Amino acid sequence: MDVLPAELADQIAASADDAGDGDDAGDVAETAVAAEGPWVLVASASGLGKRVPVTQFRLQKRAGMGLRAMKFRTDSDELVGLRVLGAGEELLLVSEKGVIVRTGADAIPQQSRAATGVRLQRLDKGDRLADVVLVPPEAETDDDGDQASGDVADQPQASGESSEPSAEG
The pTM is what? Predict the structure, then answer.
């Protein structure tokens, strides 16, 4: 299963090739790509998280040992969310006790893979972050203000119902 789309993997490979050509030009290109995104959102059960540029993760082949994406503060902490996101996306942080926080991806600071991260959600004692969910983008609207999909008039009706008045009486 591929985590990154093929065009994104090609973009990362191209930026890695460019970085190897020249020292100064590679650093400028890497910071420009990191500022534009995409990023990997990393979140832990203790409510900490960060955005890491995708370019900091190398693609691995068979028998790869993996990469460390986050440093945990305690041994009991664990990774609960790892999502690839772009600029302007929103996400929901869901705790085990049902507290949901909606935040923008741009509000989460960009850090390196070795960093611990920042507090994404303040949790009560005994509560833990359960999941991180990306909010799907809103459906585009027509000129009339109706949504492009999901109009009530366009939906098929049940076989026993009819929109015409009945002649029974």
Answer: 0.63
